[in-house]
Amino acid sequence: MSLSVDIRNAENFAKVGEVMEELPAAHDTLVNGTGAGNDFLGWVRLPFEVDPGELSRIKAAAKKIRSDSDVLLVIGIGGSYLGARAAIEYCVSPNYNLVAKDSPKIIFAGNSLSAAQTAEITAMLDGCDWSINVISKSGTTTEPAVAFRIFRGLLEEKYGAAEAAKRIYATTDRARGALKTLANTLGYESFVIPDDVGGRFSVLTPVGLLPIACAGIDVDEMLEGAREMAETAGAKSPENPCWRYAAARNALYRAGYTTEINAAYEPRYRYTAEWWKQLYGESEGKDGKGIFPASVDLTADLHSMGQYIQQGMRNIFETVVSFGSSGADVTVPFSGDNLDGLNFLAGHTLDEVNSMAAAGTRLAHVDGGVPNIGVSVDRPCARSFGELVYFFEFSCGLSGYLLDVNPFNQPGVEAYKVNMYALIGKPGYEERRAELEKRL
Ligand code: PA5
Questions:
Q1: Residue 379 forms beta bridges with which residues?
Q2: Residue 413 above 90 pLDDT?
Q3: What is the mean pLDDT of residues 249-258?
Q4: Measured between alpha carbons, how far is 148 from 134 in angstroms, rounded to an integer?
Q5: Atom number of ligand 1 nearest to Cα 77
Q6: C-beta of 283 in contact with ligand 1 (< 6 A)
């Protein structure tokens, strides 16, 4: 296991030791399933309980898609979108669709209600062989449901209903929801999202594993990384990296640092930070409480958000994920004319320069009053992605219980849906519509 957590620059700012004393109880609550939301703890044991039959079916579906499709259209939103995108960008590249040679392009749809995005994707599919993986736990979420209706129509137009049905893979609840009904009626191959795994904790279920396998990523390695981390996370010890992270961030929160900025010096981490924002935002932001999760891409955002981080309101702390190696070997060349004055860097690898930028920035930010938690992993790959996923999930469960909220529900997500349904005229929402129309 390569992951480690450095909390020295949090201990300078807050009483981490005091919160650490609460960790044994939070740990027991999570592991013994005695806390709020305990019917959504399936992710805790998930890496140890992967169904080999289901995994083989995922791999077989991925193999078929890789052999008969230029494009896989992945339709989903929130937890049914971010994890797969994060994994593909992290393990392969943010430019996956440009660099993947023997794998289908992966296009994500149904994560907005944008007509422009939908039209653009439609144009991109023209002339391609393609398949759909539609993902929705509830099977009723508006954004992916609308996208699926549109793209299913296009697929049926291209291949005919029978062949289209063989190119549609539905990942959803085992029994409930409109998507399950569609899959049963039209004979789509289906994958089950376990009842006790919530959307934002579902990347290591078929929700993430099918698109990730289609991208040619080794899902066994990813699950192995998660398993290793799960073993480490299970230890009741102040050395447990999840305890260290959960204690540090909660101590900082209690000391007034209410915004956490997740950052890395690798562009391929960007969507992992997006996934992390959903995980922590939906798990902690309730009952008028919770750390606000934000993210930046470094060094790029040192030239935009860097000013704020260095000298803005002092309610922020950073969690910086760093890698032992980028996995690429690039050296700054010597220049005979040295007109750019960069010969002092000649012979250094870009990894060295990047890590010096990271170290210098960390010290500057700490000096500027920004606490820092460091999370280090070996290099970006399927295994370290699995480690990071489980590390952040387990730490999130602990943090939620330290904060005394139910980390596994998201009641606030419903409010916008009710208003949207009312305004768009969904049957049953007439009264709300009348109320809202007066206010508009
Ligand atoms: O974490 C969650 O449960 C949510 O953010 C969901 O992932 C999101 O709303 C999508 O839901 P569904 O998979 O039911 O379409």
A1: none
A2: no
A3: 98
A4: 7
A5: 10
A6: no
